[in-house]
Amino acid sequence: MDLTTICDRYDDRLSPADYADVDASANGLQVGPDSADVETVAFAVDAAGATIETAIERDADLLVVHHGVSWGGIDRVTGLAHDRIAPLIEHDLALYAMHLPLDGHDELGNAAGVADLLGLADREAFGEVGAVTIGQRGRVADAVTPAELAATLEGDLDTGGEGVQYFDHGPAAIEDVAIVTGGGADWLEEAIDAGVDAFISGEGKQKVYHQARDAGVNVFLGGHYATETFGVRRLRDLADGWGLETTFVDHPTGL
Q1: Where are the domains of the chain?
Q2: Alpha-carbon distance 91 to 80, whole Å?
Q3: Could you tell me which residues are beta bridge partners of residue 174?
């Protein structure tokens, strides 16, 4: 399949133009020619040395990631930027990245993946960034305790052995849950204003503990990497359906 066709199909599903004003990532094709034949596609959360190297070892023609190499433009291709971009060009490995649009998509997104894991119903968009959203909110079918919710997350998230950290500062029976994956701790205030029982994100900040305690809300931190594998895995499912050979490059950070 032609590289342009793949990129166009992903762009059509994810609508990166809607996020252009709020996302520093250069979403879409970041490295690659205008046209190339693609047989094998690798998928990873991060475009880092380890994942690029593995994609090359697996003879991939395209690497699709959540975190790419271009954030607000590249002024100089030196140092770390050179070390990451040079192997892509040398081995004819194109790079496609999709950041916030892949967080907030109501079906393919990272937050949607966590919501599916918990079986949330009555879902709605959550996590405002300008005119768009990057998370989801919903209700569990039967109320769960903080320990039970943490166990569900820990059983399915790829935390690199680090487990799920949580602060049980809220209701003992959790029904209403808000999710912003990755580094979504800044949306805790929106979750508090919304009156949810629990807020789920990837990584936290020092102030999250006290914000949650003072507001009386449960907070769960499943890891930045662990909460953001869902989107790229679902993009892989699409590629499988298009008849492409695919591979997932799993490289958990424990963070």
Answers
A1: 3-98, 103-224
A2: 18
A3: 144
Please provide the DSSP assignment of 25-42 as one string: B--EEEES-SS-B--EEE
Distance CA 200, CA 167 (A): 11
User: What's this model's pTM, rounded to 2 decimal places?
Assistant: 0.96
Q: What is the pLDDT of residue 142?
A: 95
pLDDT digits (tens, 9 = 90+) for 63-105: 999 999 999 888 889 998 999 999 999 999 999 999 999 999 9
Domain covering 103-224 assigned CATH 3.40.1390.30 in the classification: yes
Contact between 188 and 199 under an 8 Å Cβ cutoff? The reply is: yes
Which class in CATH covers the domain with range 3-98? alpha beta
Q: First vs last Cα of the chain: how many Å apart?
A: 35
188, 208 in Cβ contact below 8 A?
Answer: yes
Mean pLDDT rounded to a whole number for the chain? 97
User: Do 103-224 and 3-98 fall under one CATH topology?
Assistant: yes
